[in-house]
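Entry:
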Amino acid sequence: MGLKTAIEIVDKVLGTEVGEGIQKKAEKPAGKLILAESETFVKAVVIGIVIAFFILVSARFLSDLRASECRLLDLCAQLPLSQFLVNHSPDNPHFLYSALLWLWVYIFQGTTEAFYRLPNVVLGFLTLYLLYDCGKRIFGTRLVGMLLVLVGAFSPVYLNFVYQQHGYALAILLAIIATAGAFRIVQDERGLGICLFACGTLLLPMVMAVGLIVNVALLLYLLMHFAQQKRLMMNGLFLGFLVLVAVAGGVIYLPFSHQALSVFTVLSDSRNHLADSIDMLLSVAAHSLPLALAIRVMNSVKNQEARKSEGAIDERVIGSLPFLFIACMVPGLLVAFTGILPFLDLVVLFGPLTFVALMGFRMTTLNENWRLLVMFFLVLVSFLLWTRGTKEMIAKSRTQGIHMNGMLCQTNSDSRDVSTTAAAVLYNPHLPPNSQIFVDTRYYPTWLRSWTRLGGKRDRIEELGAKKMTLRLEKEHYRYIPKFAVGYDGRRLAKQLSDTLGMPIALQPLQSPSVLGIYAVVIPGRGPKLGPTPPALPLKPEVKPISHQLGDAQ
């Protein structure tokens, strides 16, 4: 009796499939390793991507707090939890995240940028894990999980928002949970699907109001799916139930509806809505398009492998992804163009849009090793091009005094200009003790936090805005005391300061440790002369003084 015959007899008696497994292994080409089918390879790549994500986010993690973040943390420190939650303002437009932030600060009493941002970064890593798990459980293969992690970790948009103190990381995590629930419903696993969908859609509006737009997008997605399957009528009651679940979380805004609407108006009025719509389209292209195009290219190349790749992928979900794309983009662009909700909050839609990158994916797409390597190359090159381009735009905007605050380009991302410059000024031994420092209003909260944390006196810092600000001293006193101004654009500063003081002034640029400029303020022909410049704050010889004369000033 041969070994093969013996194995067949054992299989029949025990009901096993040992012989079949041996036969399948024997059919594999000898020495041919398909990386996409190797569990060890996929796990190793995912770990590598997560490490790269940590490196990329670390620079932003330690960057200066933004003005809105500083004001939010000031409210958190000044108000008890009951008042903090109902203090619905442009700096505090959320409830669930505000409660978590207040508890985090109250319990652990930290004061650094890293401390405040740690929960958000942890949520960012949880989001990557959830994407990997969705690929494995919903789409049926770890390979898809790896591709989703690749999209999330190397998204210029996600990296801009994941660390910020506005609940973006939590909202995107909940949006992905709700999307996973919608996918389970598409797969006719309604029990698990309803649980996930309800968990995400109930909590999402409590983090930020734009969560209702995400809920609407997921409902539209399911509506289009059932319509395409010609099952819309028989699922009418079920969809009605999902609508109730999706809007239930928004009930929290009813007691504060008037206040919430005024906040949304303040956050939206100052923006260019057409530019925001274009920014959103470009952001989607940077986030989802690279992998989607790479999949398209790989599918168009003739497959040299005769055999099919192992594993199966759920075609119902993959086939419905174009519906998800339409369902997210239509309400998203509508909100961006009309400005009815804060534009930057629409980044929450990028949770569901991460899955859109898989449109057209098949298991045979990557059944040759070179295909997988080319796909990684295309995604990484796209990421480098987007980040390089936006970094140059941001650097140029800073020197021109333009404050960029879009999804792709944000002036304050990965910058420590304010804290390093504040430290240099405070620790300068030649800084006159009675001097006043005027700081551009867009960086004033950040400067004030850095200055006071280093031991500087709060009353030496003055806010300089587009409108006339309240001065700490009588105007006449400013003629005779040393003054300095801080900002990126000297001409803008000169005009603002001249309007605020009501007198002609000249700005002399001083050496700064960053591109954030430090200027000595001089009133031509009045008050004490500036005198020799101290060594630690030397004049830049190549830059002429910047002057701004009022027409009727003496």
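Confidence is low (pLDDT under 50) at residues 25-31, 306-311, 527-554.
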